[in-house]
Amino acid sequence: MTSFTSKKLPFFSAAQFKESLSESDPAINYVFIGNHIPYANEASPDIISDTVAAEKTVWDNMYAAKRITGNDVEHVIPRINWTGNTKFHQYDDTITISDLISSNSSQNLKPMYVITTDRNVYKCISNNSSANSTVEPTGTYTTSNGNIGTADGFIWKYMYNVTASNKFLTTSWVPAPTSTDALDYGVNSSGVVAGELSNILIVNKGLNYRSVSNVRVNAFSSSQTGLMLANTSLILNLFNIPTLANLTNLSISGTGIASATFITNIENTNGAITLSTATNGIGGNANNITISTRIYVSGDGTGVVASSALSNVNNTITLANTSLANISNITVTTIGIGYSTANVFIYGSGSGATARVILPPKFGHAFNPAKELNANNIMISVRIGEIDSTENGLISSNTSFRQFGILSNPYKYTSNVEANTTTANSVISQTTDLTIVAGTSYTLDEQVYQGVLSNPSANGFIHAQTTSGVRLTQVRGTFTSGLALIGASSAVSRTVVTVMPVKPEFVKDSGDILYVENAIATTRTDGQAENVNLIISF
After folding, report:
1. C-alpha dihedral sign at 85, 89, 92, 94
2. Which of 86, 293, 415, 483 is most buried, by CB atoms within 10 Å?
3. Partners of 429 in the β-ladder
4. DSSP states of 173-193 as a string?
5. Sign of torsion, CA 499 502 507 509?
6. Is the per-residue pLDDT at 128 higher than 60?
């Protein structure tokens, strides 16, 4: 028995998480900041583990949090900037999405999508047989339903645009919408076409495939369905074939011959050709007829037209090197629509060439960009200091933080139930606040205590201070009014007047810490705001 876990499962989990924050009764989640105490080595953040003890320390360090809303969450993909002379994976329905979006530095091979200088995101539909991309794609869904052909032979599918002000766009990440209904992403349903057939891949190049453009036929008039070759032996030699029957089903073109005409039959004895479509003008008696390989696609869609490129365009292949005369590439010249199944037939003078179509996802490319580009990463972007630098006085503007993360479903202080949409404030403080008599300032971040340092009745660390008060973190014990609050390193002693009635917003150790990151210190100053960006990978 064999099995696999679909790569859609992580994306489904990511989408569910995002949706949970936008529902009518959304999940209660916060981005928290904490740890104003310097590391032993400020250039090297402390390692943190997923243990109960570590989670308790996170709670000790936490001094503020801001609630996450649906507008703070988005699917994101790693940023891949378009760069010239680079190979890109092309979309292929037989290759796993994880391979299509991976890079291979040794092969100079990038994922199948890019973001350009216009901040347009494109999916590579055809990489011109693994050629280097040398022309940056431009254009949107208004150009050929978003199918952008460039001079280097690539075909790109326009997916969406990212505005410069989008807060989820960073030097490392690009946001990805989940539908054409997404606002501010330059998307439109007209750019999504079900069953687009825009690429055909060579499986086997075959042998002895040739195209001849100097064929002479006898004079003919309009509305004829038959032609006569002027020199059958020359044609046999040019195509290197034993019988003219090898040319059956090949394309034929030239003056007086209708577009998309092919040979339905050819007599080996006299070179009499039967055409699939009657002639539409006079012609013949000149070396201006071309007989070439024909690419035919059968399936449940319509409209696809394709042509082939051969390796022997100058007809210089000798009998000893017929293996060089093959099909090097197939190009879709007119994109088909409505295909869910399709097969490719190659009609040429040679043998052995095979190809397959590459079919799009259900509903078409760009229907769900996030899903198609495997955006199973969620970015949470919350701005601290959005109201003002202190968020209405709840968050100190003259301290630092070295830790941030996600807190889910905490309990309100003195409550034994989870916070809900009614009780969960948008911004909270987790400090213990004391008013004290005027005096000398403590040293920021130092330990302060009541009683004796070796066995204090209460202690904590200075997170912020004013002339008449302090905010403390990592509090142990209960502070008492009328007793001295002593600085462990500064020896400053000031009497506590009151312990503020507003306790930390949430019950310590309640709810779940879903994500924690230790980082190099971010120092806050008055008038400054910070964007806290978190990436959760599912």
Report:
1. positive
2. 293
3. 64
4. EEE--SSTT-TTS---GGG--
5. negative
6. yes
CA 12 to each of CA 8, 20, 95, 374: distance values in angstroms, whole numbers, following the listed order: 6, 12, 20, 10
Q: How many CB atoms lie within 10 A of CB 531?
A: 12
Q: Which amino acid is at 495?
A: T
Q: What share of the chain is helix, strand, coil (3-state, %, to 5)?
A: 10, 40, 50
Which pLDDT score is estimated for 393?
A: 79
- Cβ atoms of 399 and 384 within 8 Å: the answer is no
- The pLDDT-based confidence of 427 (bands split at 50, 70, 90) is very high
Total-model pTM: 0.87
Q: Which of 537, 173, 141 lies closest to 367, judged by CA?
A: 141
Cα 463 to Cα 456: distance, rounded to the nearest angstrom? 19
Nearest to 535 by CA among 170, 206, 280: 170
User: Of 42-51, 317-326, 384-393, 456-465, which one has max mean pLDDT?
Assistant: 456-465
**Cα–Cα dist 350/141, whole Å:** 40
- Give pLDDT tens digits for 168-227: 999 999 999 999 888 789 998 999 999 999 999 999 999 999 889 889 999 999 999 999
Give the pLDDT mean for 483-510: 90
Sign of CA dihedral 464, 469, 473, 474: positive
Token pair, residue 193, equals: 């076409």
Cα dihedral 335→185→182→382 (10° resolution): 150
Strands 447-452 and 455-465: antiparallel
